[in-house]
Amino acid sequence: MADKDRVLKYIQDNNGVIRAQDVREMGMDTKVLQRLEKSGDLERVAHGLYMDAEHLEDPFLVAQHRCPKGVFSMDTALILHQLSDRNPVKFSLTIPSGWNTALLTESSRYRFFYLKESLWKMGQSTIVSAYGNVLTVYNVERTICDCIRKIDELDRDEVLSAVKIYMKRPDAKWHELMNYAELFHIRDTVRQYMEVLR
């Protein structure tokens, strides 16, 4: 099978997306991607990330590709967990302290929160975006605690609405929520929100 056909098959099997890294792992030269872009079969959406020209671009996937250590968090995680129906003006990502990303210069599109690596790792999970791509996001309970912790930096009404929705969900994990609250020293604050919004 020709390189072009192998790439197109890979894209077909992977939701219309391929990375330069995937091509290298398949033992091919990444020039095949440039040729497919030139022919109009592929579109380059970010450095090292290509999509089938027929697919809609997934802005969440592009952000995660451009900032591999970024974990969707805060209000962006609320959207991904269906606790908010707002369109994100900026993507919120949490990265380890001291880690750098080129996206820092794009403050109109991205907002970053920093944590020491041990806390950054906690509660990471995956979710499938509306475009069918797997993204790294903090789990629901961690997200609720993060939003309460940073409520003054977020939209207060959006956070309170998300907490109300969470409290009605049959899959709410109260014990896990309180474990995160304890970890971030906001147990009493979380309890107060739960009592007021009940």
Write the layout of secondary structure elements.
Elements: H1 3-13, E1 17-19, H2 20-25, H3 31-38, E2 42-46, E3 49-52, H4 59-66, E4 71-72, H5 74-80, E5 91-96, E6 110-115, H6 117-121, E7 124-128, E8 134-138, H7 140-149, H8 156-168, H9 174-183, H10 187-197
Parallel strand pairs: 5-6
Antiparallel strand pairs: 1-3, 2-3, 4-5, 7-8
Helix pairs in contact: 5-7, 7-8, 7-9, 9-10
Précis, in short:
The protein is of the alpha+beta class and about 200 residues long.
Structural key phrases:
Arc Repressor Mutant, subunit A; single chain; 8 strands
Describe the protein in words.
With 198 residues, the protein is α+β, with helices and mostly antiparallel strands. The chain has 2 domains: 3-55, Arc Repressor Mutant, subunit A (Orthogonal Bundle), CATH 1.10.10; 60-197, no CATH class. Helices cover 45% and strands 18% of the residues. The protein is built from 10 helices and 8 strands. The protein has helices spanning 3-13, 20-25, 31-38, 59-66, 74-80, 117-121, 140-149, 156-168, 174-183, 187-197; strands at 17-19, 42-46, 49-52, 71-72, 91-96, 110-115, 124-128, 134-138. It has a 3-stranded antiparallel sheet. Strand 2 and strand 3 (49-52) form a beta hairpin. Helix 5 runs antiparallel to helix 7 (140-149) and helix 7 (140-149) packs antiparallel against helix 8 (156-168). The longest helix has 13 residues, at 156-168. The radius of gyration is 19 Å and the shape is elongated.
